[in-house]
Amino acid sequence: MEAKAKLFGHPIHQMLIVFPLGLLATAFFFDIGWMATHKPGLAVAAYYMIAAGIVGGLAAAVFGLIDWLSIPSGTRAKAIGVWHGLGNVVVVALFAASWWLRRGTVEVPPTGAFVLAGLAVAIALVTGWLGGELVDRLGVGVDDGAHLNAPNSMSGRPASDRTHRAA
């Protein structure tokens, strides 16, 4: 099932999720580094990575919702998509709460901020797996007729154009 929201022939949601996933996970590792070293730069970097990750997560969510709305009702993909999407909303909300707790003490974040970030990362591991299930197992966001010799997405030809397959 092809994604509805595309840019240059590729699903926008799948392009955008790498940013919040990377930023928020890295912020958590910077938190761990801060706990080990108490170097304020690590906490400050985590604070700004969380802010950027929240913005990126909200942007990715818009395009994920557009794609989810096109999944046929009553399918396993629709149900998995609900858990994936709602779980990621929880992840962003937990990181937003973690960011909020840090705002007055950016260089020395409170324990609650770490706990919320850690919980969010644990949930993100599950929602990331669900996203993989949607794409890799259920074919959501994959061009119809995709194959190993499909033409370039910017060629204007459909992936199912089998006339250009190598022998």
Commentary on this structure:
This protein is an all-alpha fold. It has one domain (6-143). The protein contains five helices and two strands. A two-stranded antiparallel sheet has the order 1-2. A hairpin with a 2-residue loop joins β1 and β2 (10-11). α3 runs antiparallel to α4 and α4 packs antiparallel against α5.
Strand proportion: under 5%
- Main β-sheet: number of strands, strand sense, barrel status? 2 strands, antiparallel
Order of helices and strands: EEHHHHH
Give the neighbour order of strands across the main sheet.
1-2
Class inferred from helices and paired strands:
mainly alpha
Query: What is the overall pLDDT average?
Result: 93
User: In whole angstroms, how far apart are the ends?
Assistant: 26 Å
DSSP summary, beta strand count: 2
Count every helix, treating DSSP H or I runs of 4 or more residues as helices. Answer: 5
Helix content: 55-70%
Low-confidence runs (pLDDT<50, min 5 residues)? Answer: none
**Domain unit count:** 1
Radius of gyration: 19 Å
The outline comes out as elongated
